[in-house]
User: What shape does this take?
Amino acid sequence: MVRVMVVDDHPMWREGVARDLTEAGHEVVATSGEGRQAIRVAPAARPDVVVLDLQLPDISGVEVIRGLRAALPQVRVLMLSASGEQQSVLEAVKAGATGYLVKSAAPAEFLDAVRRTATGEPVFTPGLAGLVLGEFRRLAAGGGTGPSDAGNDAAPRLTDRETEVLRLVAKGLSYKQIAQRLELSHRTVQNHVQNTLGKLQLHNRVELTRYAIERGLDG
Assistant: This one.
């Protein structure tokens, strides 16, 4: 069961998403139609995942992501938007979103995305994952700064297996694909990723992917 907060300014859509989540066995801990309200409510609701619309009436979804991450650094944010425009996706990811799904996604795809987002796995509408990886490579080549640049003067030592998993993360492989490649269980791969996140003081696999790319581990 995943604790989920739904933020969308369309009542029917918000209620429908909340209903689907509840029927799937998750706990909807809060809903909101405004960004500022969502940021205020989140610390008390303590969701694992926030399903967030990009376009809100008061502030942008990107601003909400930043506010949520400041209030709850460990929270995962899944953008659920009608827009699949490249700039919107990149801005959301740079702000700290774990995944980005367009609203035309099937219910089963959405519910799977919520479950995967809760584990820290980046989930993107088909075609967008490559865009994000490409942008991370571009920023790394240009010496761009970001969450993964902080505190790396003396980076913690990773085990050989953690480094091996990290290389595959940088290539954009899913947990399932990494597990198959290394002949490990899905849970073991997830544990390696979580251990690596803790050592590097990063919050999610999006940040971890950028960290790895900046260090040339995607080659």
Notes: The radius of gyration is 17 Å.
